[in-house]
Design a protein that fits this description.
Number of domains: 2
Number of helices: 6
Order of helices and strands: HEHEEHEEEEHHHEEEEE
Number of strands: 12
Radius of gyration: 18 Å
Oligomer: single chain
CATH topology of the largest domain: BirA Bifunctional Protein, domain 2
Shape: globular
CATH class of the largest domain: Alpha Beta
Helix content: 25-40%
Structural class: alpha+beta
Strand content: 25-35%
Largest sheet: 7 strands, mixed
CATH superfamily of the largest domain: Bira Bifunctional Protein, Domain 2
Strand order of the largest sheet: 1-2-3-7-6-5-4
CATH architecture of the largest domain: 2-Layer Sandwich
Length: 273
């Protein structure tokens, strides 16, 4: 049983009001929690009970936050942005949702802080060295999870975690994690960051719904370009493979040059080496 949601904190309320004209369908209904196991789980449950498209769940802390590949997302109180949005896309739009969300978070961070993030396929947000194998530090991550009804896609929940405040990270991620305040050396208004990310997501989602997939891919490539033309490794049919990440295709798959061919990576964990 979840605790009852409370009103949005004043900093979020004021920041949302400042971008209201750019939010489109996003965040017209929002639920705030001091603590949740997972904002994605709460949003998925709300979606199954009929949450409107654009419904937003935000928490100050997560006790069971997670990222891609079942990894834990460090979510201490007040240290970051932990938010999930309910979308009800046409199935034709769904393959590019993670690409759209990644570029939106990168764009929102850049607009709110001036920091220039780097995207790692499909949607991890880094800063630092152009070579993600040498000095890149993870700033934010995105997890999209879907639900169905009657065998058809019913909803997709897009969750994002953004490290905002300085904090102590678990030993296994301390060397490769960072926050906005660590990078900028100053206090950052998390409300403005979240508001700009949501406004950017609204724009990218509108591109998808309006058939402007090329605009979504171009936005992603703009932030991902430093991570392309870099060596990577991944598992292909249970066998480790290596190549050079080159681009994404029209469905958002990563194209990797390996030997004399181009491999199309659609899922799994790709590691920059």
């Amino acid at each position: 049983m979840l605790p009852p949601p409370g009103p949005l904190p004043p900093d979020l309320e004021a920041s949302f009001a400042g971008v209201r004209g750019r939010l489109g369908i996003v965040a017209h209904q929002a639920r705030w929690f001091a603590e949740l196991p997972s904002t994605n789980d709460a949003a998925l449950a709300w979606a199954e009970r009929g949450a409107p498209e654009g419904a937003l769940v935000v928490a100050d802390a997560q006790t069971g936050g997670r990222g891609r590949q079942g990894r834990t997302w460090h979510s201490p109180p007040g240290a970051g942005i932990y938010a999930s949005i309910v979308l009800r896309p046409d199935p034709r739009c769904a393959p590019l949702l993670t690409i759209a969300a990644g570029s939106a978070v990168a764009q929102g961070i850049h607009a709110a802080t001036g920091l220039a993030p780097i995207l790692k396929w499909p949607n991890d947000v880094y800063v630092g060295s152009a070579s993600l194998a040498r000095g890149g530090r993870k700033l934010a991550g995105i997890l999209a999870e879907s639900g169905s009804s009657g065998g058809r896609l019913s909803h997709v929940v897009v969750g994002c975690g953004i490290n905002v405040r300085r904090t102590v990270y678990p030993p296994d991620i301390a060397a490769r994690a960072t926050s906005l305040e660590d990078e900028l050396g100053r206090v950052v208004d998390r409300g403005i960051v979240l508001a700009e990310c949501l406004a950017a997501l609204a724009a990218r989602y509108d591109d998808l719904r309006s058939g402007r997939a090329d605009a979504v891919l171009a936005a992603w490539r703009g932030y991902a370009s430093p991570s392309l033309q870099q060596p990577v490794e991944w598992t292909d049919g249970g066998v480790a493979a290596r190549g050079v990440a080159e681009d994404v295709d029209a469905q958002g798959a990563l194209l990797v040059r390996t030997g004399g061919r181009t491999a199309r990576v659609i899922s799994g964990d790709v590691r920059w080496i």
